[in-house]
Amino acid sequence: MNVTSWSGRIPAVKSKADLVHESLRAAIVSGDLAPGARINMDELARSYGVSKIPVREAVKRLESEGLVVSRVHSGVIVAEVDKEEMRGVFLAREAIEGLVCGLAAKNADSGLLGELERIQAAMRAALADGVIETLPELNTRFHHALATASGFRILAELTGQLLLTIRRYRITAPMDEANWRAVIEEHEAIVEALRIGDVAAVVAAARAHTTAQSQYEAAVTG
């Protein structure tokens, strides 16, 4: 038996560093740890009941993701959101979303469609109930499902990183209900094109969606 044949049988077990990383990452993305907040490594180790080693590993991963920075006199702090760079983030979303969705359309099955439809239903319900704070996570899930269906890990990772940056930015510049309604409608155009198996229409709908969001952002920031 070769390595390839048996390695996939090993169950995925999260390490202490994984758990600390996930917890800190969630706190940063949600805004519970605001930009500029100092991260006390000793205090974290005590609160999680772990040694400093997994905390240091988790912080290194967060630093590689651009979520924290290490400064000589300030220690580790949550990274600021660079508003000047956000235009580049939105442009990058425009550049890759059509590609991602086009590839996903070729791999689309009932499982993907079902997942997207469930997310859309949850987004509509959240908007109707005025629970706006749940929409960013649902939006991330929608695009993550498409990126995963593209079949390329690098595209899924790029999509995830861009959406993460936008979610952090949205803490300081939240979208209003009207724009969230537009997002849901734009998503529906993507889903409908997937339903009928029209790859060109999927690509067009995806590009229209990211272009509309870039234009919204440009109008808001002036």
| Mean pLDDT across all amino acids | 88
The coarse silhouette is globular
Strand percentage, roughly?
under 5%
Question: Number of helix segments?
Answer: 10
Summarize the biggest pleated sheet. Answer: 3 strands, antiparallel
> What low-confidence regions span 5 or more consecutive residues with pLDDT below 50?
1-11
- Separation, N- and C-terminal Cα atoms: 62 Å
Strand order of the largest sheet: 1-3-2
- Summarize the amount of helix as a percent range: over 70%
| Element-level helix/strand string | HHEHHEEHHHHHH
How many strands in all? Answer: 3
Structural class: mainly alpha
Radius of gyration: 19 Å
Attribute tags:
222 residues, mainly alpha, three-stranded antiparallel beta sheet, 10 helices, disordered N terminus, single chain
Fold and architecture overview:
This protein has 222 residues and is mainly alpha-helical. It is built from ten helices and three strands, in the order ααβααββαααααα. The chain has helices at 3-7, 16-30, 41-48, 52-64, 83-107, 110-128, 135-149, 153-172, 177-195, 199-221; strands at residues 38-39, 68-71, 75-78. It has a three-stranded antiparallel sheet. A hairpin with a 3-residue loop joins strand 2 (68-71) and strand 3 (75-78). Helix 3 crosses helix 4 (52-64) and helix 5 crosses helix 7 (135-149). The longest helix is centred in the middle third of the chain and has 25 residues, at 83-107. The radius of gyration is 19 Å and the shape is globular. The model is unreliable at 1-11 (pLDDT under 50).
